[in-house]
Amino acid sequence: MKRNKWLAVCLAGCLLLALCACTKTNDSAHSGDSEADNTQAQAEVQYDYQLKAGEQTEVYDVTFDKMVTVTVDPASTRDGANELRSNIYFDNCTFNGGLTIAGDYHAMISLGSGCSFGDGSVVTCKAITADAPKGTTLEDNLIKVFVACEGVTVETESAIGVLTDGPDIVFNGTAYSKKELAPDTDFLGIYSIYEGDTITYLKLAIGEDDSVTFLD
User: Fold this and answer.
1) What are residue 109's DSSP bridge partners?
2) Parallel, antiparallel, or unpaired: how do β-strands 212-215 and 169-171 relate?
3) What is the pTM of this model?
4) Which residues in 182-199 are b (16+ Cβ under 10 Å) and which e?
5) Which of 14, 135, 152, 212 has the most beta carbons within 10 angstroms of its beta carbon?
6) How confident is the model at residue 79 (pLDDT cuts 50, 70, 90)?
7) What is the C-alpha to C-alpha distance for residues 74 and 169, in angstroms, rounded to an integer?
8) DSSP 91-116
9) How far is Cα 179 from Cα 1, in angstroms, rounded to an integer?
10) Alpha carbon 52 to chain centroid distance?
């Protein structure tokens, strides 16, 4: 996903936090230094991200070999204004250990087109407040996962939205194709909402002009 699309969807500001994990290649005479540099680089990789209300974060060019956790501060509630929405944007990142998102409302987690997931690596969304999922409606500002890269699987028992601007996604075991379901709009959105004790799924065709059409 291009950065301008992310800005259009997230209504985000322009705060840049670029984290790079770099490895160096030296000749055999410096192999010990190289190993030390690689160990230090891995130790400096950030795996836990805390998003406060209104915080905008961007992360680029990192290989994550362990689970990454993004936690949305409870201050980001359903009643927050759009300018207080929390956003984190990953691009050119490799997730070998999966991605966990913990939060109830008011955040956008975006995966740019350069991201990739290792075998068996999935995105797991969890609520912080136990009763939040069953009390959430489509009118609330749900946690949203924006996908612009291939091979993303999302698993959740929460009320969330998963959006794609092209790539197929797998959401709770079902594959969804924008090309098939919403070929003429900018985004396909799949929302999980509770009806009583059962999760139902809504399919939406969404335009950058904020137009929304419910799909069968």
Assistant:
1) 88, 145
2) unpaired
3) 0.81
4) beebbbbbbbbbbeeeeb
5) 152
6) confident
7) 28
8) ES-EESS-EEEE-SBSEEEEE-TT-E
9) 16
10) 16
CB 69 within 8 A of CB 91: no
**3-state DSSP assignment of residue 75:** coil
Cα–chain-centroid distance for residue 204?
18
Neighbours of 12 (CB within 10 A): 21
* Cα-Cα end-to-end distance for the chain: 26
Q: Residue for token digits 């300018």?
A: 83
Identify the burial level of 179 via C-beta atoms within 10 angstroms of its C-beta, where 0-12 means exposed, 13-18 middle and 19 or more buried. exposed
Query: Angle CA(187)–CA(188)–CA(189) in degrees, nearest 5?
Result: 115
Q: Look at the block and give the residue holding tokens 């680029």.
A: 60
3-state secondary structure of 184: coil
State the amino acid at position 145 in one-letter form: V
- Token pair recorded at residue 171: 């959401």
Q: How far apart are CA 163 and CA 186, in angstroms?
A: 10
Residue 26: both structure tokens together: 């030296």
**Which residues partner with 187 through β-bridges?**
206
Query: What is the reported pLDDT for 84?
Result: 86
